[in-house]
Amino acid sequence: MSRFSKTLNALALAGAMAAVVAPAVALDRYQGVGRAATAAEVKAWDIDVRPDFTGLPKGRGTVDQGIEVWEKNCASCHGAFGESNEVFTPLVGGTTVDDIKTGHVKALITGSFPQRTTLMKVATVSTLFDYIQRAMPWTAPKSLKPDEVYAVVAYLLNLAEVVPADFELSDQNIAEVQARMPNRNGMTTDHGMWPGASAAAGGIGNGGKPDTRNLACMKDCKKDVEVVSFLPAYAQDAHGNLAEQNRPVGQTRGKHTGDPSQDAAAATPSVAAAALALANEKGCMACHGVANKIVGPAYSDVAAKYKGQADAGTRLMAKIKAGGQGAWGAVPMPPQGHVKDEELKQLVQWILDGAKAQ
After folding, report:
1. Has residue 187 been placed in a domain?
2. Alpha carbon of 211 to those of 184, 191, 198, 214, 271: distances in Å?
3. What dihedral angle (degrees, nearest 10) is formed by the CA atoms of 42, 135, 340, 267?
């Protein structure tokens, strides 16, 4: 073997060893920072269900069982038959038997139905299962067991006439149900982010068209950002103390503005601040503002209604825990059974005291 060949072989061997060792060297840079996730932690987060049903848990549920789960957890927001338009847009309606045959919802083209419902738009049954499993019910996400999710999905599919009233949905037959989804042919997969896209699309990589052209939209950008304009302190409370207002996006509270003498108190967590944090944690602020109505009444109005009543705390706790409808309009409040008694007592006292931020 020539010296040149020996040198090439040595370089190839060194390269192969570097490829094996490189990941370990890279990890050494982060020794002592964090730790590897346990199998249980990964499993708790890895719950997504894909269109090919990867990630689908084992389980089963009937339409009749779904009615029971629905009445307890879903009807207060979506109506008894998924048709309510009071809190969210309707889930069911606008699909026909012909749509189930063709896989295209005609009403999406003709506009013959007043509004686009979920069952009109969704193309994959896995989307229904995945969303309900991860995000529902609204007040207690991820609290439903797999069998309950199967049952709720079966009930929705029955309302849309996709499955009969005596149907039992399971991990064994859900793929068969997919073949009857009203809008199953209404979604294109000819793009790069969809694995296995049709090669006929004339795309690249996996056969699909790219989702973006990836062209730079800016050039000659500054390396350092400099703030050159800001709202002066005297104008920040032009519309009241920001800490007492519900922000337009999410439940994030604004900073304390107004009387500087209150700044020190605002910086120290108080009983009111702890109650407000608890209200955000339990999802209360998604439906209620402190001084403004959202879906439910403003807490200031609730405090005014119960003012001076000796048994106000007990009555309000019972109402929140059991849920109800009619006291503040047609929109119902679902039962708040996920809130512990001691937490409920803290929240009710905070509401009756005026639901202050600090």
Report:
1. no
2. 21, 6, 14, 9, 50
3. 80
Last residue of a domain, one of 145, 178, 211: 178
- 151, part of any domain: yes
Residue indicated by tokens 């209150």 = 262
Q: What CATH number is associated with residue 104?
A: 1.10.760.10
> Computed from CA positions of residues 259, 263, 268, 274, in that sequence, does the dihedral angle turn out positive or negative?
positive
Identify whether residues 142 and 65 lie together within a single domain: yes
pLDDT, position 121: 95
Residue 48, number of CB atoms within 10 A of its CB = 12
Q: Within a domain: residue 270? A: yes
Residues facing 169 on adjacent strands: 61
Count of structural domains within the chain:
2
pLDDT at 97: 95
Q: Which residues of the chain have pLDDT under 50?
A: 1-25, 197, 199-206, 251, 263-268
Judge if the upstream peptide bond of residue 137 is cis by omega within 30 degrees of 0. Answer: yes
Closest CA to 173 of 56, 49, 46, 55: 56
Number of CB atoms found within 10 A of residue 226's CB = 5
pLDDT value, residue 259: 63
What is the predicted pLDDT for the residue at 211?
60
Contact residues for 226 (Cβ-Cβ < 8 A; gap 6+):
none
Domain that holds residue 90: 60-178
